[in-house]
Write a structure and sequence with these properties.
With 372 residues, the chain is of the alpha/beta class. The chain contains 10 helices and 12 strands.
């Protein structure tokens, strides 16, 4: 068993939170929870609805949402949205791009749905990706913008198939990279990644075609049962009133609204994406130059700007190294379960300071140099 050295205090980052979800929450976001008449009050009352309206408006600006698209909030995270999409957005059969755990989970939900035909699944090995292409008989195409489990980022594109919807999972990159939303019909995400908040909610940017598809399916005569909790139409109608169907995680909404406001104050998407690209590039360049490490994603064009995944020399256990760093306040840099051989996975969100990333790499070097 390798015995790692103690790390001098002077080398440590000022904030050691590098997790890929949930991510670092800034102090100002937590302070916002003490605002009067918010926590512990009705989500249908104006003080909370005002925060929801501000969050929606902020996201519309930050993400450059087209005028005819809607910003919709709903109860549950991205996993709940997968079920909602199976209930309300896929008419009969979908095709999926799958190159990691989260793309595969959505595809699995569609496979299990008794009212849908078995989906087509375009798969790629971990660390790479495929381009989803039009197929006969497919009415919805889905793929992740950023695969959180592997650190692979995909271009965002519309699958050019007349009458079909394009659904893109933006959970771990929304708010950290620019996207042309006219290329998609649903761009959905949770709030505990780049938006530095907590779980319990999903957000979806929906095209008129997606909203109409949901309405038509839910009002259809094919006998499909759509529980109210999974009704996308109900979520849209409630969001138009700046509320959710059921009582939401108020803290998640409040912290996300404060984070979006902060991102806009710092320069919006241009500044956020540049920050994340700089932070992640430091890690990739370090790994390429380090004899004991290498980027897991070999193609530079596919490397995520927010979830940098690194393979460590087999002589050192990445699990033990991550555990050792945790004892010094550097947390949550372990690999996603079942991905890679001996990995570290580092979140480089807008809230993570570049100087802290530099300090993290210095600490890793300090350990590796003394055990190899």
């Amino acid at each position: 068993m390798v015995v790692f050295p103690d790390i001098p205090q002077a080398l440590l980052p000022s904030d050691g939170r590098f997790g890929c979800g949930p991510s670092k929450v800034r102090g100002a976001q937590i302070e916002a929870l003490s605002s009067p008449l918010l926590m512990g009050t009705s989500h249908r009352a104006m003080p909370v609805r005002d925060v929801v309206a501000s969050l929606k408006d902020g996201l519309r600006t930050l993400l450059a949402v087209p005028d005819d698209y809607e910003v919709v909030l709903g109860n549950g995270g991205a996993s709940a949205f997968w079920d909602m999409a199976c209930a309300c957005l896929i008419s009969s059969r979908a095709a999926f791009g799958s190159w990691g755990a989260f793309g595969a989970k959505f595809a699995t939900e569609a496979t299990r749905a008794p009212h849908l035909s078995n989906p087509l699944i375009d798969e790629a090995p971990y660390g790479s990706l495929v381009t989803v292409t039009p197929r006969d008989g497919i009415d919805a195409y889905a793929y992740p913008h950023n695969e959180t489990s592997t650190g692979v980022a995909s271009p965002v594109y519309r699958v050019e198939a007349p009458g079909a919807l394009t659904l893109v999972d933006g959970t771990s990159i929304a708010g950290a990279a620019a996207v042309d939303l006219t290329q998609v019909d649903a761009y959905y995400f949770s709030l505990q990644k780049a938006l530095g908040s907590d779980g319990g909610l999903w957000v979806a940017i929906l095209s008129p075609a997606a909203i109409e598809r949901a309405r038509r399916i839910e009002e259809g005569s094919d006998g499909r049962w759509v529980p109210q909790f999974l009704s996308l139409t109900a979520a849209v109608q409630n969001s138009r009133k700046d509320q959710t169907l059921n009582t939401p995680a108020l803290a998640t909404i409040i912290m996300a609204e404060r984070q979006v406001r902060w991102l806009l104050e710092r320069g919006g998407m241009g500044a956020a994406s540049a920050h994340c690209a700089q932070a992640s590039s430091l890690i990739y360049e370090w790994a390429q130059a380090n004899l004991a490490a290498r980027p897991f994603v070999e193609n530079p064009a596919w490397r995520s700007p927010v979830t940098a995944t690194i393979e460590i020399d087999e002589a050192v256990s990445a699990i033990e190294l991550a555990a050792h760093l945790r004892t010094r306040g550097i947390v949550d840099i372990g690999a996603y379960r079942g991905v890679g051989v001996n990995q570290l996975r580092i979140g480089t969100w807008p809230s993570v300071e570049v100087e802290d990333v530099e300090a993290l790499l210095t600490c890793i070097d300090y350990c590796l140099e003394r055990v190899l």
